[in-house]
Structure formats: C-alpha cells, structure tokens
Amino acid sequence: xxxxxxxxxxxxxxxxxxxxxxxxxxxxxxxxxxxxxxxxxxxxxxxxxxxxxxxxxxxxxxxxxxxxxxxxxxxxxxxxxxxxxxxxxxxxxxxxxxxxxxxxxxxxxxxxxxxxxxxxxxxxxxxxxxxxxxxxxxxxxxxxxxxxxxx
Length: 151
Prior knowledge:
CATH superfamily: Dehydroquinase, class II
Order of helices and strands: EHHEHEHEEH
Low-confidence stretches: none
Pathway: Metabolic intermediate biosynthesis; chorismate biosynthesis; chorismate from D-erythrose 4-phosphate and phosphoenolpyruvate: step 3/7
Protein name: 3-dehydroquinate dehydratase
Organism: Halobacillus mangrovi
Largest sheet: 5 strands, parallel
Number of strands: 5
CATH class: Alpha Beta
CATH topology: Rossmann fold
Family: Belongs to the type-II 3-dehydroquinase family.
Number of helices: 5
Structural class: alpha/beta
Site (Transition state stabilizer): 18
Distance between the termini: 19 Å
C-alpha cells in the first residue's frame, strides 16, 4: 500500500480549543482520522506527525523522500517565515500539498504570503478541516497522474 505523510505545524495540536471562531471545534485527532479515512478509501495509508518545532518539521519532510508517495502539510505560522521548510520541500522529489484551515488570504496581511506555496504542487485554504480531505484527494490524483506519465 502506498503511503502519504501528513505534517501539521505549530499550535495545530490545540485545534478545538484555539480560536474556534477561526479554526472550528474539530481536534487534530479529527483531522488525522479524516485524512486516514479518505486515503484508505483510495488505497493509501497515512503516517501523521505534528510538531511545534521547525527543525523537527524539516526532518520529517526530508525523511519522506523514498518513504512516502507525497506530503500534505499545514505549516501553520511557519508558512510565512520558514525558509528552512521551503528549502526542504524544494529538495525532495515527491509532491507536497499545502493546506490551511482558514482562508489565510482574508486574514492579517502578514498571512497573505506563503514561503512554501511556490515549491508545492498546490495549496488549499479556507475550507475548514474538509480542506484536508480535498488535499488528500488532490495529492493522490497528482501522484497517480505522475505515475501514468512515467510509464
């Protein structure tokens, strides 16, 4: 079975408690379950990881090369500042989808720029946790389309 890596960045462990008006009442466990169920229906398994530490997230991105078919990542606050995460995504050959629960483009100005978006296969924002389902399906389609093009 093919494997996907789900990476969630800082403060996403606080989902359900942190600013529910922006992020809803679903927990990180709800997100992980949604991604795993969606992927499983398509013949994929998911390894989930969350950290509040930038270097740990970079390590996970690098480790995914050769061990996962693709990555779904919510870099959270590091979206707007992490050149290290951008460089890690650039250095791997598997597709990466960036996801955000809220519409970052309708929020504070500093949230409008993503360091990672230019090196990701796609970005999904503003659909609540359902965006993770969309990211999962989009990533799988990208992986399978690329697999057909390699044949």
